[in-house]
Amino acid sequence: MSFISKTAAAALCLAIAAMPAMAKQWGMVVGVDDYKHFQKFPAPPGELSDLEGAVNDARRIAGAMRQTGIDLPDHRILLDGRATLENFLKGWNEMLANAESSDTIIVSFSGHGAQEREIDEPFDETTDGLDETIMFHEFDPRNPRVGRLSDDQLRDMLVKASAFRIIWVMDSCHSAGLTRQVNRENMGLTRNGGIWDIPIEPIEGEIKAGEGDTGKDDLPHVTQILATASEDRLVTETRFDGKAHGALSWYFAEALTGAADLNGDKSVSRSEIAEYLQDRVFTHMNQNQQPRILPRGDSQALLSLVPAPQPKPKPKKGAVAVKFKGAKPPGLDHRSYVEVNTSPSLVFENKGGKWDVFNHTGDQITTIDKGAQRLISRAKALDHVRKAKKPGIPPVVVEALHENKVVPIGERVGYVFKPPAEDVRFLTLFNIASDGTLQYLHPVPGSKDDPVDMRGVRVSFDVVAPTGADQIVAVFCKRPPLDLRKTMHSFNGKTVPRDDTLKVALQSRSCQVGIVGLYTKAR
After folding, report:
1. CB–CB of 164/340 below 8 Å?
2. Cβ contact 49:42 at 8 Å
3. Across residues 428-436, what is the average pLDDT?
4. What is the pLDDT of residues 230-247, one digit of tens each?
């Protein structure tokens, strides 16, 4: 949901000085899985469902805030039954009462987002007539004014907090983009609370909205970090280390502990956090979710980091989260997967002797009658690739030369791969195909291996069978990565390795990884 409009903030933002060294940072974290009037997952048809990953989000962000020295007492960590609108407003007013001018207030919300039809002033939603809302634990479908905060109400709160720097993070549906058709039934839980007709009469103590969404970027003290790029998009829960999460929340917690500090100055600017979050979330969600940072990225400092961040815990080794619809496919090693009901990494849907296979964003990867274990290995390999992104190096820039859609056989597709930095320009390119086959693309014997120009290298080809969901991986390094290329030669045309061979080959600190999905079909 966009509480501030989207134009003309750049000049205002450039005039704002960098954060004072002694400014304090205050935090509040909200995570709602358990809604008082919603059903446990899976909810009956037509009923709203609780969530699974919002509390995980809140706990992870809370830990990251405390690690970074942000003031976050227990009573401002609002989970499930404590995540009421009343407690939220108490925490908000407490921070405003105690903070000093130029302090930073950071609020994150993970839970359901909804929309409601405008019934009174300000009538500011000229496109669809719908206000965006966030839903707290006590939200009541019988009176949808209870337990919700609309974009107009929130904007009024932010106007009154103009003495402070505000960072507002929202990991819910309708937080502010999918051109590719996906099977939503096979995606994880969506944080979508529906569209509501609210009663005309306000409830006692309700915040009175002032101007609403005025169409002006006139709140330069607020930085919004939104889960999606437009108001009509849904946010799907996914999995990290075996647990359900929102992708934006996961990577925002990483950013808080220094992963987004690209220049090593112990602070994170708007441009750094925008670059970090947009790249990571877009990649992890297979180009199905693009976060938005408003105002657009600039050099203004957002977060100051502790001088010596605590070491991060080592990633957990976990099996691939899988959901089976109907009979299981044969030939699976039970040690390589764990069955889940929500937010699976893979879904195997039985179709009478064959199985349609879907990824965690609802794209159909392929259809199989055997070889299911190859798909488990593929999911594990892609997890290694995503985790190989280096926080200290800018992201690889990948520009698609075709629309983000399912492309039929015979059509030409193309990409431009651009180096992340002047000294990181040696390219290795490979594809992880829909059936788990690794295809080594560049540089193969006899091809040119010069550093790539900063304008990028263009790759184009015609779509041929087999079709499905491929993932093209671009690795840029400071020098030719001999071990990685040796691995590529060894597995070229074979199933990706089931063990940590690919993980080890990608671990060089002088390389950055980019990944882009290509989704194809028969005509």
Report:
1. no
2. yes
3. 95
4. 655 678 899 999 999 999
The residue among 212, 198, 84 whose CA lies nearest residue 153 is 212
Cα–Cα–Cα angle for 230, 209, 194, nearest 5°? 40
177 has pLDDT over 90 = no
Question: Where in the chain are the domains?
Answer: 10-304, 320-380, 381-521
Please report where in the chains the tokens 């405003």 appear, as a residue: 96
Dist CA 435 CA 466 (whole Å): 9
pLDDT at 196: 58
- The verdict on whether omega for the bond into residue 443 sits within 30 degrees of 0, i.e. cis, is yes
Task: For residue 239, give the 3-state DSSP assignment.
Answer: strand
Q: Which of 513, 517, 493, 494 is nearest to 503 (CA)?
A: 513
Q: CATH assignment of 10-304?
A: 3.40.50.1460
d(C-alpha 185, C-alpha 189), whole Å: 9
Least confident range from 1-10, 163-172, 279-288: namely 1-10
CA–CA dist 101, 98 (Å, integer): 10
pTM of this prediction? Answer: 0.83
25 burial via Cβ count (<10 Å: 0-12, 13-18, 19+) = buried
| Torsion angles phi and psi, residue 461, rounded to 5 | -165, 165
Determine phi and psi for 213, rounding to 5 degrees: -80, 100
Burial of 413 (0-12, 13-18, 19+ CB in 10 A): middle
H or E stretch at 222: strand 222-226
Q: Under CATH, to which class is 381-521 assigned?
A: mainly beta
Tokens linked to 297: 């990225």
Amino acid at 420: P
Residues 6+ apart with CB under 8 A from 329: 348, 350, 355, 368, 370, 372
What is the mean predicted confidence (pLDDT) over 209-237? Answer: 70
Element (H, E) at 269: strand 267-269
Is the pLDDT confidence value at 181 over 60?
no
pLDDT at 150: 84
According to DSSP, the β-strands at 77-79 and 104-110 are: unpaired
Topology alike, domains 10-304 and 381-521: no
Find the angle CA(150)-CA(153)-CA(159) to the nearest 5 degrees. Answer: 135
Nearby residues of 30 by Cβ (< 8 Å), 6 or more positions away: 58, 78, 79, 83, 88, 107, 108, 109, 110, 111, 136
Please count the other Cβ atoms lying within 10 Å of the Cβ belonging to residue 412: 11
Strands 426-432 and 469-477, sheet pairing: antiparallel
State the helix-helix crossing angle for 270-284 and 247-254, rounded to 10 degrees: 140
For the stretch 452-495, pLDDT in tens is 999 999 999 898 887 889 999 999 999 999 999 999 999 999 99
- Whether residue 190 is predicted with pLDDT greater than 80 in this model: the reply is no
Among 136-150, 207-221, 240-254, name the one with the lowest average pLDDT: 207-221
